Amino acid sequence: MSFSHLGLSDKVLAAVAATGYTTPTPIQEQAIPHVLARRDVLGIAQTGTGKTAAFVLPMLTLLEKGRARARMPRTLILEPTRELAAQVKEQFDKYGAGQKLNVALLIGGVSFGDQDIKLTRGVDVLIATPGRLLDHTERGGLLLTGVELLVIDEADRMLDMGFIPDIERICKMIPFTRQTLFFTATMPPEIARITETFLHNPVKIEVSRPATTAVGVSQFQVPVGREPHEKRELLRRLLREAKDLNNAIIFCNRKREVALLHKSLQKHGFSVGALHGDMDQSARTAALDQFRKGEIPLLVASDVAARGLDIPTTSHVFNFDVPHHADDYVHRIGRTGRAGRAGTAISIVTPLDQKSMIAIEKLIGQTIPRVEGHAESSAIDGPEASSGGETESPRHQRGREGSHDGAKEGSREGSRGGRKPRREREPRRAATGGRHSGPKPQAPAAAFTPPVAPAPSRTPSIGRAEAPQAPRDAASEPADHSHLPAFLLRPVRARV
Ligand code: AMP
Question: In CATH terms, is domain 3-206 a member of 3.40.50.300?
Answer without folding.
Answer: yes
